[in-house]
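Title: Prediction job returns without error message
Component: structure pipeline
Severity: low
Priority: P3
Assignee: unassigned

Description:
Job completed but the reporter wants confirmation the result is attached to the right record. Sequence as submitted:
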Amino acid sequence: MAYVITEECTACGSCLDECPVEAISEGDIYVIDAELCTDCGDCAAVCPVECILPGE
């Protein structure tokens, strides 16, 4: 399952450089492309507000 970014996202950019497949898109709230996400969890590990969670 792909990771998801919740509405608590502050768009700080910490996760962008961590994604090895560039599955994260910028915006007011960042979005993870489920088709590209490899479920590695690197983005969640660096999120300062802990808003990146495993998908269900």
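Comment from assignee: result matches the submitted record. Residues 15 and 21 are 12 Å apart (CA to CA).
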